[in-house]
Structures are given as structure tokens and as C-alpha cells.
């Protein structure tokens, strides 16, 4: 089906919006009238420019406050429409969105609305134009899609149909299965938007918080299923009003939008992609370290029980190992001076299929320099700039990345393996990319998103959201300042342990600088939990934090920062604990500021 | 009365919060428990540090989910309270806030709540501690202040009183006059917060959108009047949860908080300040111009009909004049390279009184270098960095700033005065300071705030708010990106005209680069208004924009930008038009981007 996006979704001038939509591969756009009004391009120039970009203009929107008015106002409204029809002809667009009136002048009289919309459709027909009538969730008298449809049906004019908008329907908690009663050819346009589940004025919710499908809380796959069942064959169009998206880079937002549509189409069977593979956990995490700070990072890795186990054949990359856990250290010259998580590699039985899925989901493939005989790793770039590798560590073929490393140092572990693997990777996101990043990791890697959290830190509120796979061996925690001007650049790598106490003791003995946790925390823990005093004392003695949910427990400690923004965590999950100890994050951030 | 602030209002570590509160002049703080838990300071150290700063800790808060529970949970809750009483003793704080339970374990039984709160108060009494019981607006069974008070009254324990919080009361639309029925000595604490009028889940509204008194939509003066009528003599305490304030500089936020309290105290007669004077309009606006860009600014002023009329006796400042309108051009070396509005001078009959009021409202007085015989201008710094001068242009004394300028050029105007004066000054605000700035200009200059607008621009949404005095001759329009990461650095000076067409023609003839307005704008204007075609053509011919409200009209045009972010506007108000043409701002911003 054709894919469309409303120009209001994107920032920039109309030219920039059109170019962004075209370069993300959209077939058409809905032209949001204020974007035209503010443009220096004449309608013919807009038409030509869109045409050169391979874009159709599928819809002109919105025409407001038309129907069910007293006669003199009707004449005025028809005159207004006539002028807009003229503009539409110059634009070469044949469908106009008329949204249900919010005007106090509108009369609660369906017969009047029907007659006047029929008159409008008749006038439109003279220009070869169709009218798509839509119920706004906050319309004065018409708020429900079935109400709008009854009016359209009663009008019985070939140039009058309805427009369905998932937000207006789902925000009211309406049952969308009634859509199946509408003949598909009378649905003139379909607008898709998701939104987080918020309890607030629906107009404000709509104007500020809409997001692309899969980024909110609506079941858009089910919704679209109902629409498709009618035989609807028009475009799938995104109409999203979002404070953040409206000021972000329009080219990346358009790509994000297109990705959301592909994911939705996959969920409804309209599009077939290579299915996500069953991930086998993390192959490695790669840290990028400037030469100056390499010694500090390596000292910390040694103290945590890692040993330098290999050296890349052709690149300044070291392999560090602790039991079966691998960390790569990439010595960068001239890059960012702060040590950071530069890449994440996941185990997949079919690296090429994983990469193909990612590519179909518009993930940029990263060019890789490869020496002779070295593994051909497939790597993509996540929105936050992190590289994601697809590996098959035990493979003899391209996935066998380990063979790129020459053994360094003596074989075998120097310490018992206190670390069982990588539990999760926590990445702070650039403010404008948070929803995009969550959708990216979820769709590309086949993860499941958790509900978000809000954390109060000394620097302000932070929003976080976690994603993990069904096997619970690939987990991400993404975070972003709640308000754009805030700071949050922390990243960390959480290692799992079967015995966090033993790991804490051993690491401290080897000199790991553990983040000190205030006594006040343990005093509060003693007050609000029924943990025995001796357990509290053991936790306190090792600066281990504690969380509990439904009988499951989470015990964890942090290293001090290495560089300005990177640290490690060691966690033990007991009894199927399935979160990330977010309740303790404010304490952690405050301690990091000391 | 004592002034207090909750630590949760401010960003930073507990140490930073205490210091900020003390340096803004607060007498005490409410200690928000998570701030203690995350602090490395022992309770005794917190007490000592506060004491050294001259701060009392007036309240420990909150203690949650205590009352009306089954017996085993009561025992658990009393044990928890006992531990907190121990912490409070170490802190030296004698009042604990208990907020009404939100727990599903709570039973809807006032008698049970009464008995259990009495038991808690009895236990607290053993530590010399008092319990202040507060109804949360989203409490499970107790949501109204009068309900909480009935429980407190029924308990009849000297160590049990109530805490009133303006947000919890006013957000529910409750009638606060019933507060007068509570004996003042049973009100153990008073928390004050304002909030914008939003229709949303009350918990989210409370947690994210509270603001300081005078920054929102509640009538806090009336509210406080009811509380004072009870004989309440405790502290006035600010408890504000605000996403933006929580990440802003705590020292300036504490000053903003204190200013809001002083303004509120003035409104309720608790505090007497020098009253705002009746402003007589703008004396001048001062532009700061780097030497490189001076020629461009001066060329534009000449084209707009200004002439270089004077030179400051001792500073590199030029006086430019058009009719009775004055603009100063300050040649800065080594300052910001972009031309900008650096200062605003208002006419006041009593400059010293105005300055004294500003100082009492914590406005920083600006030190001025003054040559012999020069006017002693009183100047203060607004939160956005703009200087505000208080002048009396016709005065022979210190206010007579004009005598600081030596005449330059021939006397008299070179062109007829197309400009009647300064209509308004539009200043973009740093994201974190918007509410502060609005309160500052309003309270210091005695202005009235308008309801805010939201404008969609190509760079994202912009929030704007205007303020003006009762005589309508001093107007400000403040704007800020709605989302913190957005950009908005535009500033402009709007000049008023009695004939915008004549002004536009004359200025164009003299070479003023007028911002071109797209034809699409005029096509839309023709569609949506009943302006005759010839009027539309006149507007279009001169790039004049139009707005209409209730029969009053606004006609205005803009100059092109001079430098990256400064421009001028010429406006004509007809029929008492009282806004700023915000509907046209998106068109203007898009044109500026071309």
C-alpha cells in the first residue's frame, strides 16, 4: 500500500519537509495547510517540487468548522471552500480533509450537517475534488467515527467519504471493530498515530503527545486490521503532532516514521521482513578509549577480573575476557576523549539474516574495513550512534569474529569467574531521539519494550525505558532527560553475577573503586523492608543496593566512574526479578556527583 | 512570618539545596526524604550544616501510606515510623508530614484512620514530635482538606494537626473558605504551590507542573487569606514539583521562589513594598552592537527614519531619535558579536522608588560607571540578562538621562515621524527561566500577565506570554521553546505607528529591507476573512500582516534580520486590539528562515 506522511510531523520549511519525506521513501504527503501558507513557494511550485521528488500530494488538510451552521455562515463557508478548491487545483491534490466542527456556531443537527456536507461535496465535484469528513475527538457535536460515517452515509454523495484517524478513535476508548461496517471505498483516507496512554485533555494529548506507531500505547495493528478488512486500499498515512519530533532533524524523523510504518505493516501481514532471529546473548561490548585514558580503563578491567586475552590482527583493538564474558577495548586516536560504549555485539544464529532485517528497517549499515582472512561482521548504527554487530561466535564463517584476535597472554582465567555474563547495557539517548531509539532496538533486534520509568536525580528528572528479548539474555535500558535542556550522558555496562557478595568482595580486594552508598540509604532500607539487620549490614559493608518486587530480588553495586560518564554495574537477579532497580538510581546519581 | 522551601523544589545535592535556600534568605526548609536518603551526610551533619547556614529544618516529609490499615500492617507502619522518628531526632526536626494513604491496603473507615493516627501521634509525642496529616488530592479515601481535618479533630491529640497544601486543595476545585473553620494552632504546616490550569490526571499535574505562587492560575492570595484568618502563625512554605525548576540552577531558582513569596505576601498585606509607579512608557531601548556590525544596524536605523541625535559624554553610546522615540546604540568591543537588545528603559515619575521596589524583589542592582555630572540611572538585571533602567526623561535630577548626551547632527527630524513610539519589546528567554522572567517583569514593573500562547514554527513549538501595564504603554512579549532542546534566540523591537501603510511605504523607499510575506498568506487571508480584495492587495503589496479579534485589528510588518537574531516590527493597533498577532508568527519565522 502507498505510504504517506503529514507535513506537520516534521520540522523545517515545506521544502525541507518534502525532501525529508521523499528521501525516507514515502509515496505521498498530506499537506498541512499552515505549511503551505508559510511557504514562499506558489502552489504550482509545491506541486512541481513534490513531483520531482517522486511525491504525490494525497490530501489537503484541514478544512475546519464547516458543517451544521446557519444559512449565512454556510454561504461564507462555501465561499471559503471554493477558494481552497482553487488552491488545491493548483497543487494538484484531489482530496480535502474536513474535520468535524468545533465552532460554537455549529448546531447539533445531523440532518443539517448531512445536507451541508452534501452541498460541499457537490461543489467539490465540480473541481474533481473529494471530501474526507473526519470526527475530531473533541468535535462540538460529532466526535465518534461511526457518527461521522452515519452522516457521510446519509449524504450519499460519491464525492463525500470519511477519513479515519487512529488517534481520534482510540483516544476515546471507542471500539474500532465497528470500522468493519464501513465500505472500504468510502474510507477516503487513513491517518495513523500512536500515543502514550495519558489521562489528560484529549486536545492537548493529541497536539503534543502523538507518536509514531509502536512508540505509544495503542494497538495499531488491531486497528489497521479492522480498516484492511473493509477493503480499504488507500494510503497508510502518519499524522503525528509531537513537541519533540517537530523540532528534531526532519530527515531522521522521516526515517523513524517510515520504520514505524514498516513495523506496523509487518505486524499486520502487509509486509514481510526476515524475522528476528533468536538472540543468544551478547557476544561482546566494545569500549572506545582514547589513548590517554586507556590505562585507567585497563586498570579497572583488571581489577574486575578481566584479562587481556587477545589482540586484533589489524586494528588497535584488544580483547578482554572474564570467564565467558568479552569486552573489546578500541584505542581511538583523535576521537571523543571520554571512554564510552561504542558497540554492542549480539549472538545470532544467522548474522546475515539479522543484518538484512536491520537494513529493511532502514538501519544504516556500517562500512567495515576488513583485513584478509578476517570475519565479515555485519554492523549497523543505532540512532544514538552505538554500533550494533551481529555475530556467531562459534561459527567458522563470517560470524566467527574471535578468530580475528591473536591470543595475548597466558590461556585460562586468572581469577574464578565472578561474572556470568552481560546483564544489560544502559545507554543515555540524545533528547530528540528517545522514541526513535526505543522503536529501533525493539524492531531491529526483536525485543519487547517495558513501560517507562521516571527517575528523580539531582540534575532533574530522567525518563527511562527498557527492552529485552524473550530469552532474557539481551537487555537494554535507555534513558533521556525528561526536559530537553537537562544533562544525561551516563552509560553503563551491567555484568551479571550468581553471587553479588562474592563478586563485590573479590573486586574490592583487587582494587575496584566501588561507588560508596550513603548510610542513610541503609537506614531507610531497614525502615521500609523486613530484611534482617545482618543482611542490611552485609549490604552496607559492600555498598550493595537492593530492590524487591513481588518476592523477587535485585542486588547490585556500581563502580566509580571511569572518565566523565562511563561506569560498570554488577547485578544479581533472584527469583526472576525482571527490572533494573530504578528505585535506587537517584541514590546512585547523587553518589556519582559527590 | 517565617519563610520555608521544600528541598524537592531545587536541583542538586542536599548540600547545594541547603546553600541555595539559605542564600536566598529562607528561614527554614522542608526536608524531602529522598534528598536525605541520597545524601552522604549523616543526619547530624545535615542538622549542623543547616544550622551554620541559619536554616531550621521545619518539616520531615513525606511519610506515606500509614493510616486505616489492618492490625499487622499497623504494627509494621508504627515500626517504620519509629525508625523515622529516630532519624528526625538526629536531624533536629520536630514535625513529620503524613500524607493520606494511596495504598490499596487502606480501609475506607474514618474511625480506624482516627484511632491509628492518634496512636502514631502518641508514639511521636514520646520523641517530642508532631504529626501533620495532609489530604493528598489523589488519596485513596481521604482527598479533601476538610476530611483530613475531621479525622484530626476526632483524634483530639495535641501532637496531631493538619497540613494544608494549596495545590491539593485548589486542584480539586474545593472551596478554600472552609479553612476558616480550622483553629490556626491545629494547622501544623502550610505548603504553597501554584499551577497552570490544566485538565489532566491530578497526580501528573502535581508532580510535573506545579510552579511558584503567581506563576500559575490559582488565586493564592485568597487562599492564604483564609489560612491567615485562622490565626495560623507557622511558616509559609513552598513545595513545588516542576520538571524545569528541578534541573535549573538551584541558586537562581531559590531566589525566584523567594520573590514569589514576597509578591504573595505583598498581595495579602503581610509585606509592604514600595508600590509600583505608574509607568509613562519607554524612555529608550538600548541595542548592543559589536563594532563590526555597527554599520549595518546604523544603516537600518537611518532607513527606518531614525537619525543620530547625540553622543554620550563618556561612553561609546549613540542616541538615535525618530520623533519622540529613542534608541541607544552601545558599541561594544569584545562582547557578543550579534546585535541585541541589551537594555530597556521605562519612564517612571519616581526612579528611586521603582529601583527600591525592584531591589526588595531581589532584582540585582547593576553597578553603573558614571562620569561627573552624569545622571545616576538606576538599573537592574532581568533574569534573561536584559538591563532595565528607571528614568524620568523630563527630570532635571538623576532621572534626566538625556542630558548625558551631547547633541550630534542638526536639530529636528529629517523625516516626518512615522513612528509614534515603542509598542512592545519581544525577548526570547533562556529555557529554564521562563516562569521566573514572567514573574519578574510582572512584579518588578507592576505589569499584568496575559494568558500564554503556543506557536508552531518551522523549528518547533514556541511558548509565549505577554505582559503590559494598565496604561498600555509598556508591553513585553516573552517567548521560549516549548521543549528545552529547541532554539529560539530571536528578539525584536516593535514600533507603533498611526498609519502602518504610510510607514511601510516611507521605510521601503528609504531602503528598509522588509521581510517578504508569501502570497499563500494573502490567499488564505482572502479565504478566511471578509476583507475587500483591494485591502488584501494593499497589504500584499507592502508585506503587511493582519489579525483581527472582536472587531479590533492589528496590522504589522517586519524588517529583515539584522545580524542573526534581531529585527524590528512596525505595528498599528486599531479599535483597541490588545494582542500581538501571534497567529502570524509561524509565517514570520518561516520567512525569516528563507
Polypeptide structure, described:
The structure is a homodimer of 594-residue chains. With 594 residues, chain A is α/β, with parallel strands linked by helices. Chain A has three domains: 3-267, Divalent-metal-dependent TIM barrel enzymes (TIM Barrel); 282-407, 2,3-Dihydroxybiphenyl 1,2-Dioxygenase, domain 1; 421-593, Roll (2,3-Dihydroxybiphenyl 1,2-Dioxygenase, domain 1), CATH 3.10.180. Chain A is 31% helix and 25% strand. Chain A contains 17 helices and 25 strands. In chain A, strands 17, 18, 19, 20, 21, 22, 23, 24 and 25 form a nine-stranded mixed β-sheet that branches. Chain A is elongated. The relative contact order of chain A is 0.08.
In angstroms, what separates the terminal alpha carbons of chain A? 56 Å
Query: How would the global form of chain A be characterised?
Result: elongated
Question: Class of the largest domain in chain A, according to the CATH hierarchy?
Answer: Alpha Beta
Quickly count the helices of chain A.
17
Radius of gyration of chain A: 28 Å
Oligomer: homodimer
Give the fraction of residues assigned to helices of chain A: 25-40%
Sketch the major β-sheet of chain A. Answer: 9 strands, mixed
Number of domains of chain A: 3
Amino acid at each position: 500500500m502507498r505510504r504517506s506522511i503529514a507535513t506537520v510531523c516534521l520540522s523545517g520549511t515545506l521544502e525541507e519537509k518534502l525532501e525529508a519525506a521523499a528521501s525516507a521513501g514515502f509515496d505521498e504527503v498530506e499537506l498541512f495547510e499552515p505549511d503551505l501558507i508559510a511557504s514562499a513557494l506558489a502552489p504550482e511550485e509545491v506541486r512541481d517540487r513534490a513531483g520531482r521528488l517522486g511525491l504525490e500530494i494525497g490530501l489537503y488538510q484541514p478544512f475546519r468548522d464547516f458543517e451544521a451552521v446557519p444559512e449565512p455562515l454556510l454561504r461564507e463557508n462555501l465561499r471559503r471552500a471554493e477558494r481552497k478548491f482553487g488552491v488545491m487545483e493548483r497543487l494538484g491534490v484531489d482530496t480535502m480533509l474536513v474535520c468535524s466542527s468545533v465552532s460554537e456556531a455549529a448546531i447539533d443537527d445531523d440532518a443539517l450537517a448531512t445536507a451541508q456536507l452534501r452541498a460541499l461535496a457537490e461543489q467539490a465535484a465540480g473541481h474533481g475534488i473529494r471530501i474526507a469528513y473526519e470526527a475530531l475527538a473533541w468535535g462540538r457535536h460529532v466526535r465518534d467515527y461511526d457518527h461521522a460515517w452515519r452522516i457521510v452515509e446519509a449524504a450519499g454523495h460519491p464525492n463525500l467519504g470519511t477519513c479515519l484517524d487512529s488517534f481520534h478513535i482510540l483516544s476515546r476508548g471507542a471500539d474500532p471493530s465497528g470500522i468493519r461496517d464501513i465500505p472500504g471505498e468510502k474510507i477516503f483516507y487513513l491517518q495513523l498515530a500512536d500515543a502514550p496512554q495519558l489521562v489528560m485533555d484529549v486536545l492537548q494529548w493529541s497536539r503534543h503527545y502523538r507518536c509514531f506507531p509502536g512508540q505509544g500505547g495503542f494497538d495499531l495493528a488491531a486497528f489497521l486490521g479492522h480498516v484492511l478488512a473493509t477493503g480499504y486500499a488507500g494510503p497508510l498515512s502518519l499524522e503525528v503532532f509531537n513537541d519533540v519530533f517537530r523540532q528534531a532533524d526532519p530527515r531522521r524523523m522521516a526515517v523513524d516514521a517510515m520504520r514505524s510504518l514498516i513495523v506496523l505493516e509487518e505486524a499486520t501481514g502487509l509486509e514481510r521482513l526476515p524475522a528476528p532471529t533468536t538472540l543468544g546473548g551478547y557476544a561482546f561490548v566494545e569500549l572506545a578509549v582514547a589513548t590517554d585514558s586507556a590505562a585507567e580503563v585497563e586498570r579497572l578491567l583488571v581489577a574486575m577480573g578481566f584479562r587481556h586475552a587477545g589482540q586484533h590482527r589489524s586494528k588497535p583493538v584488544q580483547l578482554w575476557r572474564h570467564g565467558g564474558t568479552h569486552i573489546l577495548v578500541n584505542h581511538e586516536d583523535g576521537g571523543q576523549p571520554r571512554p564510552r560504549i561504542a558497540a554492542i555485539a549480539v549472538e545470532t544464529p544467522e548474522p546475515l539474516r539479522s543484518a538484512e532485517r536491520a537494513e529493511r528497517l532502514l538501519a544504516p549499515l556500517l562500512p567495515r574495513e576488513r583485513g584478509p582472512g578476517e570475519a565479515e561482521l555485519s554492523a549497523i548504527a543505532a540512532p544514538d550512534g552505538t554500533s550494533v554487530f551481529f555475530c556467531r561466535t562459534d561459527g567458522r564463517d563470517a560470524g566467527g569474529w574471535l578468530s580475528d584476535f591473536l591470543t595475548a597472554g597466558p590461556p585460562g582465567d586468572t581469577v574464578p569467574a565472578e561474572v556470568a555474563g552481560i546483564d544489560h547495557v544502559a545507554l543515555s539517548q540524545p533528547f530528540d531521539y528517545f522514541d526513535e531509539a526505543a522503536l529501533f532496538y525493539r524492531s531491529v533486534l526483536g525485543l519487547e519494550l517495558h513501560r517507562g520509568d521516571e527517575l528523580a536525580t539531582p540534575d532533574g528528572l530522567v525518563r527511562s525505558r527498557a527492552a529485552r528479548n524473550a530469552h532474557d539474555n539481551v537487555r537494554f535500558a535507555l534513558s533521556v532527560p525528561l526536559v530537553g535542556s537537562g544533562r544525561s550522558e551516563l552509560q553503563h555496562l551491567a555484568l551479571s553475577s550468581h553471587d553479588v557478595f562474592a563478586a563485590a568482595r573479590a573486586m574490592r580486594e583487587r582494587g575496584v573503586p566501588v561507588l560508596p552508598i550513603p548510610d542513610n540509604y541503609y537506614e531507610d532500607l531497614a525502615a521500609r523492608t523486613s530484611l534482617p539487620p545482618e543482611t542490611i549490614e552485609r549490604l552496607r559493608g559492600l555498598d550493595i543496593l537492593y530492590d524487591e518486587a513481588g518476592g523477587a530480588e535485585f542486588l547490585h553495586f556500581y563502580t566509580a566512574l571511569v572518565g566523565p560518564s562511563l561506569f560498570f554495574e554488577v547485578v544479581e537477579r533472584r527469583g526472576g526479578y525482571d527490572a533494573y532497580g530504578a528505585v535506587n538510581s537517584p541514590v546512585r546519581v547523587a553518589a556519582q556527583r559527590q
